[in-house]
Specification:
This protein is an alpha+beta fold and 469 residues long. The chain has 21 helices and 9 strands. The protein has a domain at 34-171: 60s Ribosomal Protein L30, Chain: A, CATH 3.30.1330. It has helices at 2-12, 22-25, 34-52, 56-59, 72-75, 77-80, 82-90, 102-108, 190-200, 204-216, 220-243, 258-266, 271-291, 307-317, 323-343, 348-351, 357-371, 376-388, 406-424, 436-449, 462-468, and strands at 28-30, 62-70, 114-118, 121-125, 130-132, 144-151, 156-166, 169-172, 295-297. Helix 17 (357-371) packs parallel to helix 19.
Length: 469
Amino acid sequence: MMAQSYLLQNAQRKHPPVETALFDLFKIGPGPSSSHTIGPMKAGADFAKCCAELPQATLSQATCVHVTLFGSLSATGSGHGTDVAVLAGLLGNTPENCPPTLLPNLKKTPSSRHKMCLGNYEIPVGLADIEFGPLQHSAPYSNTLHIALSDASGKSLFDKEYYSVGGGFLQWKGWTPPERGKPVHPYGTMRELSARLQETGLALHELILENEMAITGMGRPAIYEQLESIMDAMYDSVRRGLAASGRLPGTLGVWRKAGGLWERAKSHSLPIGKGMCLLNAYAFAVAEENAAGGVIVTAPTCGAAGVMPALLYAMRNDLNVGERALREGLLASAAVGMLAKHNAGIAGAEVGCQGEIGVASAMAAAMLAHARGYTADVVENAAEIALEHHLGLTCDPVGGYVQIPCIERNAMGAIKAGNAVLLATSEENGQHLVSLDAAIMAMGEIGREMNVKFKETSKGGLAVSMVEC
């Protein structure tokens, strides 16, 4: 009774509205980690931009840059490519324009010095200037990095503390949310979103679209064009992964398996086996591309980037779902990702892998259910089932690489998403008892209580047992 009362009180409590934009959630960039690669690259690029705007008298004294990584960025930053990502950012690259081969090439020459261009001045910088600091620290977010521009005596001329808060989102000390429009249909929970749908009579994808236009000022054609770019990037990541072979980078010696799964699927004798094998192949393809530092789409993170593209690719190529329905399904999926980020978290370093693979699976389930024409209630139930059965999932990457168990988890998340839709569409009205809000609330609580060694530090779980056995 006490638990029911607690949930009821929280369900009735007013929540601040979701103001995340679609293309904050879905971002194209290099893997293997949105929080450890994309976020830190953004930090490096922002720092370089800020330094270039410093007075000439200050820049004339600058001789070096020093970066310190804290928390999870320090613990698994080498395997996740955090150091090379920050360096790439300092050299003027952003995730959107980063050449696919840049990060691997920087990794191959760790002793090289590069030129950080600040107007008329050039500051030498390299991987040796990046320090892996303590795991325990006092900053408000686990994924913290401090960057300083100094003179010859080591005196700081300018410094900035950044927080990579998951999904490629970046904040910093003193950060305030950017000025944007307000959603025309405000909601902070799924319960409130359902109420807005009832009040307006809008379909879920239309409500998300109208909020996006109000928040960003973008018109409908521009949003559709960018959605098409996101979808094309997802399809491309599947195709590249299916065509690739050999071992992935790093010391684990993990072999790419997507192509082999795809070949086996073609000759599978049972339709259900063929469908599952294809879905596995598509998820492996993107997850392997991500692990290799290839270009993928955060959905909602790099580590979970294979789940949604696997469903999307299967819907388009194997289930003959039309382009309009695919686009509308992607819009619907964003509502689930935004709610999870808003009320719990999507970063492995904050809430564990339940916030990455679990949320990706929930988003994929919502996408499939909506694209097939089911009501918003069914879409919610499908997302809830997928998320519920990832609760408690730890983030324990072996060796700090986004390979074991991350690649297989993408495939499992995709399969669970499909099954969640089957379960949700087999229920009668009123039979489903667990709300999406309750599942997200549970994920947040579990994430807060989860030991830090299970949150992307490689200090516990499979990351330890695989090495010790």
